[in-house]
Specification:
alpha+beta, 6-stranded antiparallel β-barrel, 12 strands, elongated
Amino acid sequence: MHTRNLLLTYVLSLSCVLSSPLVLPDTLRVLVAEEVPVKDCRLSFVNRTTYSTQRPGVVAYVPREGANIEATKVVVKLQDEVADANLKLAEARAETDIEIQSAQKSALAAAAEYDAAVEANRISSASNPVYPSTHMTRLRLDAEAAQLQVEKARHEQHLNQLAAEQARAELGTYHVFAKDKGLVTRVFKRIGEGVQQGESIVQVVNTETMRIEGFVDVEAVEKVRVGMPVRVTFQVPGSDAMKASKPYTGELGFVDVSVQNLSRNVRVWAEVSNPDGLLREGLDPTMAILIEAGGQSQ
């Protein structure tokens, strides 16, 4: 199947540069048995993204119009000095365990004092103990309370670690990363301007893939299936007659399940690669669905 598509692309290319009709050899002529025309075609970019932020703020960085953006790189940044300082403070609190060490020392001291009192009472006469029972109860409770302070200090450190994670996540809301590479086509906000949550800031378009959407007559729609090859041509502005049509091949990606009431048409679309960047929105493309001889494309 892959080899046949390559041959088909090569033949279509030849047909667009020759001044006379192309006569196909018998071995290639059987590739395409029928072409289903697609009407009212329009081109659009598949990957067009308008970026905004999760929070209000002041723009600190935005790329210029026409800049190329790489995936995962920062495409928008808000002023984040306060959030960054809060993160550093939270991380410093989360990293120290001095409160735990201090509580452990206090717990050891309280336990030692209680043990000393127990020992003093043990070696004294039972009728005349060094420490009365009320004093022993207080020392025991002090030792238990000191141990609870150790647990409290550990819990506080855990809360500080969670606070650091929260501050890190909050700092992340000041930065927007590109989900795909592309070209900056619109800049809605400049550096120093304020933005609200969800407000459009910059638009990035990936031009490598185009979608061609159009309509097929309802009488012919039973012949087409998702995955069938398509041929797309368009008039190259400023070119001579021999090179006025450039072929692209792609694959049918969608056939609607409903029929337009008035026109009795069915909406379809296909996607084609645009490696040379010649396909642009606004051009008038022509598309045909290619039905292969001997069966449907898989």
